């Protein structure tokens, strides 16, 4: 039943034939999708990022332990300053708070900086950076270098490249994640999953319904050539009983989730179409979707859904298989 | 003995990061699943070694997968805990400062109670003595729901207890802060809150 409904949804998206019928909500769809092995694969691809969602809660004990430490110190009146061979960052003449004044240190500067620090200090700072990324990234909003330097790196900014290099290595070797700079202008990072999703993995973790919604939108955009006017998205979602104008039981303010949350998370781009009155927008894949979601896998999924060879969508097939997975996918529309 | 981490370890860790806590059966299933996915050998009695390998790599980041027991069921659980004590952790926390303060107060109430429980009324009353931004009734209720959802507290009939996950993660903190009040089970030497019979 769910396959049939989803099938109808997709057919209406890009065929001239209009099929009207009552369709289950996307939430129900997403739930049904996850219980059917057929759809599990591409859905999990997106859901991987929600896997970091509970980690911040781990930090609660860290806070409490610090409280314990402070109280203990107050009681005992002894100060235990952390071991350090030398105060780091004495190379810097003045305090630099803004990233606008942060210049990437040269290799020789980094070298000199490292010489003045113990391996333990560098390791500790790297650990803090890793933790910061893990926690901040779970909101899926890119982490700015400026914030990282200001709040975490601080006095160690003169060895910043070394710390980032070590953090990257840690993410790769320990967590199976990849640290990606998605914006080289404003220097923002995201974490993406290096590992392939696996059927049956959702035994322990239920899928986030929002990912189902996102997946539907990404599929529509991709099958339509990479760029769609917002009205198509809204009307399609309405058919799935997800009305942007109404408060949805599962998603709440749908319009906000799609145009604000997904955009901030860089899954979608929501761009104004010039000279439109009233103002209209178009949707594109965002940078995170480009990096995290495999177009080839979407097409494969479509193929299974329609019982067609993915190659029958020649244009989409070309696009899905033309660029290597690590580079930016083309977002030009060819309608 | 710590081997190198492989994809099977990473997959296990990623799942732990989402769940926070799993029971022994889930852990074994997950272990088997991760090994099978990556064509690694999997011996049922090697689960703890497998986790030790992960822990050896997590240690520099002050994280650990720790084993603990549920007071209610006597079942073994594995929880991913954070043992970091720096400013960064505080800022990185998902909870606001005043939320953490109220959580701390709730723990105090639970620790002070004979039956290891704190009623929602008592928790609401403790808002009055907050030093950070005082929370409204609705905010407090929202926070408590969130703490239950995130598996830090358990709620039954309006009374709150510490969850297994909380106990596992907070154990060092609780031992330290409540040295006098902590009751330790004489048999297994674990902290006991609810005075249940030892299994």
UniProtKB/TrEMBL annotation, chain B:
InterPro entries: Nse1, WH-like_DNA-bd_sf. It comes from the Eukaryota. Its EC number is 2.3.2.27. Keywords: Chromosome, DNA damage, DNA recombination, DNA repair, Metal-binding, Nucleus, Telomere, Transferase, Ubl conjugation pathway, Zinc, Zinc-finger. Its main location: nucleus. It is found in: Chromosome, Telomere; Nucleus. It catalyses: S-ubiquitinyl-[E2 ubiquitin-conjugating enzyme]-L-cysteine + [acceptor protein]-L-lysine = [E2 ubiquitin-conjugating enzyme]-L-cysteine + N(6)-ubiquitinyl-[acceptor protein]-L-lysine. One of its GO terms (molecular function) is zinc ion binding. GO terms for biological process: double-strand break repair via homologous recombination. GO terms for cellular component: chromosome, telomeric region; nucleus; Smc5-Smc6 complex. Belongs to the NSE1 family. Component of the Smc5-Smc6 complex. RING-type zinc finger-containing E3 ubiquitin ligase that assembles with melanoma antigen protein (MAGE) to catalyze the direct transfer of ubiquitin from E2 ubiquitin-conjugating enzyme to a specific substrate. Involved in maintenance of genome integrity, DNA damage response and DNA repair. This is Non-structural maintenance of chromosomes element 1 homolog. It comes from Monopterus albus. The lineage of its organism: Eukaryota, Metazoa, Chordata, Craniata, Vertebrata.
